[in-house]
């Protein structure tokens, strides 16, 4: 595996950096068509969306602005609490703006569903969703990924911004965390 130092903590690489970049380039062309002549504000959800935000924004050739929010999600575990708390709010007034929420992954969809409604209630002209990855449970919530990278199986993944207890975010690919790794820390 590409990550000699941590490969015993990972099971397999699920999506490679090359696949991610190729798919993001395709989606960027769609976004350029959909937002031609309109303003566009990308809102990244910290910290997981840092990598996808950086790749998506640089793949786009239309004018954009960027802002960030931080919300609480999993803490140090591997299951969703369903409780969303704003840790850092936007610096931008989004009234009448076209917002594209950029997320690393949709699991239960609770975070994005809440964020979507929260941003709409601020008077945004539109709020669409871009997610690099989506897990199968997302179908249970009424949340549509307008732009989706990859559907993945229901496994805990790390890399490309995604962490386990703040580790592994810097890996270039998306890898499955070995159940051994979280069993050891529980
Ligand atoms: P949701 O509210 O269940 O959709 O959870 C969304 C958030 O949970 C994501 O933005 C991630 O921060 C985190 N998350 C969900 N699944 C994973 C995973 O497999 N690995 C790492 N973080 C995850």
Q: In a nutshell, what does this entry contain?
A:
Helices cover 25% and strands 27% of the residues. It is α/β, with parallel strands linked by helices.
CATH topology: Rossmann fold
Low-confidence stretches: none
Structural class category: alpha/beta
Small molecules held by this entry: inosinic acid
What distance separates the N and C termini?
26 Å
What portion of the residues fall into strands of 2 or more residues? Answer: 25-35%
Task: Identify the overall geometry.
Answer: globular
CA gyration radius, whole angstroms: 16 Å
H/E element order: EHEHEEEHEEEEH
Number of strands: 9
- What is the CATH architecture assignment? 3-Layer(aba) Sandwich
The helicity comes to 10-25%
Strand order of the largest sheet: 4-3-2-5-6-7
Number of helices: 4
- Mean pLDDT equals 91
Main sheet characteristics: 6 strands, mixed
CATH class: Alpha Beta
Total domain count: 1
Task: Please explain how this structure is put together.
The protein is α/β, with parallel strands linked by helices and 186 residues long. It has a single domain (17-152), classed as Rossmann fold (3-Layer(aba) Sandwich), CATH 3.40.50.2020. Helices cover 25% and strands 27% of the residues. It is built from 4 helices and 9 strands. It has a 6-stranded mixed beta sheet, with helices on both faces. The chain has a 3-stranded antiparallel beta sheet with strand order 1-9-8. Strand 2, helix 2 (50-59) and strand 3 (65-71) form a beta-alpha-beta unit. Helix 1 (17-34) crosses helix 2 (50-59). It is globular, with a radius of gyration of 16 Å. It starts with 9 loop residues before the first strand and ends with a helix. The model has no long low-confidence stretch (mean pLDDT 91). The structure holds inosinic acid.
């Amino acid at each position: 595996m590409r990550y000699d130092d941590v490969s015993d903590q990972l099971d397999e690489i699920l999506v490679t950096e090359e696949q991610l970049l190729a798919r993001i380039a395709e989606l960027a062309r769609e976004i350029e068509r959909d937002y031609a002549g309109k303003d566009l504000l990308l809102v990244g959800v910290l910290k997981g969306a840092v990598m996808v935000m950086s790749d998506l924004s640089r793949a786009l050739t239309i004018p954009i602005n960027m802002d960030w929010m931080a919300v609480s999600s999993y803490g140090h575990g591997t299951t969703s609490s369903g409780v969303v708390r704003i840790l850092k709010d936007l610096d931008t007034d989004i009234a009448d703006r076209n917002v594209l929420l950029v997320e690393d992954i949709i699991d239960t969809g609770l975070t994005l569903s809440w964020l979507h409604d929260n941003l709409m209630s601020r008077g945004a002209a539109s709020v669409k969703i871009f997610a690099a990855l989506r897990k199968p449970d997302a179908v249970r919530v009424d949340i549509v990924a307008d732009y989706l990278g990859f559907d993945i199986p229901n496994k805990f993944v790390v890399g490309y911004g995604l962490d386990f207890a703040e580790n592994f975010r810097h890996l270039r690919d998306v890898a499955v965390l070995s159940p051994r790794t979280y069993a050891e820390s529980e």
